[in-house]
Amino acid sequence: MSEPLMPQHDPPIALTMGDPAGIGPEITLKCWLQRNQATCPPFLFLGSAELLETCARSLEVEVPIHRLQEPVQARDVFPDALPVLDLPLPAPCRPGVPDSRNAPMVIRSIDLAYDLVRTGQASALVTNPIHKNSLYSSGFSQPGHTEYLAQLCGLDFRPVMMLASERLRVVPVTVHVPLREIPSRLTREGIVHAAEITYLALQRDFDIPAPRLAMAGLNPHAGEAGSMGREEIDLLLPAVRDLQAKGMPIDEPRAADSLFHETARGRYDAVLCMYHDQALIPIKTLDFDKAVNVTLGLPVVRTSPDHGTAFNIAGQNQANPSSLRAALDLAARMARARTADIHSS
């Protein structure tokens, strides 16, 4: 697999369509309407132009849609119109009602966006939310975007998910796992892998030369010296020793209930959490509308808004674009940091 080309000028961000029946079209339009804000870099939508036009009419907003012939035109078009590489939908779209007949174009949007970033025609990949059950009939066999992109990239290791905002960065070591299964799913190797990927990403993509990592204990009070569980002693501490031996500044596991207050957050750049809710509850409490899902370890930059398709409010002009705008902004900053890192090497 060839490395991404590094163009001299920042190309636009490739924004996927996501599920056309979800809130993706609405928040895409709203982000373009906020294009003059500093946190909204130029982007190129890969999906149905007709879908956006229909959505704009229903929202009663003026958003000119410009169908592009070539991605290179996107930056020039963006100030005056929303640039689109048109992927017509096979079936009519009804907001809030997913239709598996449109799945091939949803998948095609991801494939094309990845290819644009890989070849340097786009600087980063931002994905609108998908509905996985609608995609399975079209050959989408992965649990989600992260695994599918890892497959496209030809990776032989598992990427790592980070949730990031201006106030906190968290990395769940296990993700969509039932609570009762977490102790059996945690491994020393898995913890070390997540920490190493996170450390390198903080250096390369977040421009933090010497990242500081924290680790949340699995059990109350981080196990209380084994009286409330031995996972800290048997798994987490050995993983910390492995990481320290590799020169990474990381302390022994801390009680999760005291890791996320303001003073504690000033002591680290990211915290490794042992399970999904341990990571997502604090960041969504602190910054619900602006948290961003970031995939670490890919050869391309990929971010996503930290919410789903929200079928229940699709087409009702209730969707908040803040998380998508934050995802676009973070993707642009990560891409610039990665380019600067390559040029300085």
From TrEMBL:
Name of the gene encoding the protein in the UniProt record: pdxA
Quaternary structure, from the entry: Homodimer.
Taxonomic lineage of the native organism: Bacteria, Pseudomonadati, Pseudomonadota, Alphaproteobacteria, Rhodospirillales
GO molecular function: 4-hydroxythreonine-4-phosphate dehydrogenase activity
Purpose: Catalyzes the NAD(P)-dependent oxidation of 4-(phosphooxy)-L-threonine (HTP) into 2-amino-3-oxo-4-(phosphooxy)butyric acid which spontaneously decarboxylates to form 3-amino-2-oxopropyl phosphate (AHAP).
Co-factor requirement: Zn(2+); Mg(2+); Co(2+)
Coiled coil region boundaries: none
Residues reported in the UniProt entry to bind a divalent metal cation: H176, H221, H276
Pfam families tied to this protein: PdxA
Catalysed conversion reaction: 4-(phosphooxy)-L-threonine + NAD(+) = 3-amino-2-oxopropyl phosphate + CO2 + NADH
Sorted UniProt keywords: Cobalt, Cytoplasm, Magnesium, Metal-binding, NAD, NADP, Oxidoreductase, Pyridoxine biosynthesis, Zinc
Name used for this protein in its record: 4-hydroxythreonine-4-phosphate dehydrogenase
InterPro entries the UniProt entry points to: PdxA, PdxA_fam
Residues reported to bind substrate: H145, T146, K284, N293, R302
Pathway field: Cofactor biosynthesis; pyridoxine 5'-phosphate biosynthesis; pyridoxine 5'-phosphate from D-erythrose 4-phosphate: step 4/5
Family recorded in the similarity comment: Belongs to the PdxA family.
Top-rank lineage group of the source organism: Bacteria
Broadest EC class assigned to this enzyme: oxidoreductase
Additional note from the record: The active site is located at the dimer interface.
EC numbers on record: 1.1.1.262
Subcellular location: Cytoplasm
Species of origin: Fodinicurvata halophila
